[in-house]
Amino acid sequence: MSSANAPLTFRTATAGDVGAIVALVESAYRGEASRAGWTTEADLLDGQRTDPEEVAGLIEKPGSRLLLGERAGELLASAHLEKHGATAYFGMFAVRPAVQGGGVGKAVLAEAERIARRDWHCSTMQMTVITLRTELIAWYERRGYRGTGIFRPFPGDAARFGRPRRDDLRLEVLRKPL
Q1: How many helices (H) and strands (E) does the chain have?
Q2: Measured at the alpha carbon of residue 101, what is the angle toward residues 28 and 11, in degrees to the nearest 5?
Q3: Per-residue pLDDT at 6
Q4: Are strands 87-95 and 124-130 parallel, antiparallel or unpaired?
Q5: What is the pLDDT of residue 50?
Q6: 69 with 80: CB under 8 angstroms?
Q7: Mean pLDDT per segment of 10 residues, for the chain of length 178 residues?
Q8: How many CA atoms lie within 13 A of 26 on its CB side?
Q9: For the chain, N or C: smaller number of CB within 10 Å?
């Protein structure tokens, strides 16, 4: 079986994965490398999406899990899950740009929902998405997520999350019953 046909496997990130996760997230969201996929934010934000300190903190945080999707040992995707009572927060979702559109993201989202529902006994999955990312919102809607009408300003810590290239960035909370 070639590595392209190997099954996608899942595991929880460890401290040894921090550098690979940061590189994956940056490649999916920022800079020219991100333009190879369809999830780029390069036209909306400059700067970093994450850093080693944030990723390490998420790995160590109680009630938090960084889910990794791999094929033949190669990291293809990651997503952060965090339990808040009966709701699981889903964020920092990244798929290697070269494999976007091939079902990897759909499989990772399904595994994250499975973890939230079966392992954490959550009844809802929630996330925030930049409202200008209409194609991404439509992707989530096809998977059962709905806008809540709850909006949040884009994080003010620009050094941590990126420097907006526009002044109209805001986030909408999306939810899905599990």
Answers
A1: 5, 9
A2: 65
A3: 86
A4: parallel
A5: 87
A6: no
A7: 78 98 87 59 66 96 98 97 98 94 96 98 97 93 97 73 74 97
A8: 16
A9: N
Using CA atoms, how far residue 23 sits from 15, 50, 96, in Å, is 14, 9, 10
Q: What is the pLDDT of residue 110?
A: 98
Distance, in Å, from the CA atom of 125 to the CA atom of 145, rounded to the nearest integer, reads 9
Task: Name every residue whose Cβ is closer than 8 Å to that of residue 144 and which is 6 or more positions away in sequence.
Answer: 176, 177
- Gap between the Cα atoms of 45 and 41, Å rounded: 6
Of 36, 63, 66, the closest CA to residue 50 belongs to: 66
Q: For residue 153, what pLDDT is reported?
A: 87
Estimate the crossing angle of helix 52-60 against helix 18-29, to 10 degrees: 120
Nearest 5°: phi and psi at 98? -65, -20
Cβ atoms of 138 and 119 closer than 8 Å: no
Contacts of 110 (CB under 8 A, 6+ apart): none
In whole angstroms, give the CA distance from residue 102 to residue 108.
12
Q: Which neighbouring-strand residues pair with 70?
A: 9, 75
**Can you give the pLDDT at residue 55?**
97
Q: Which amino acid does the sequence have at 129?
A: V
- As a whole number of angstroms, the distance between CA 151 and CA 53 comes to 27
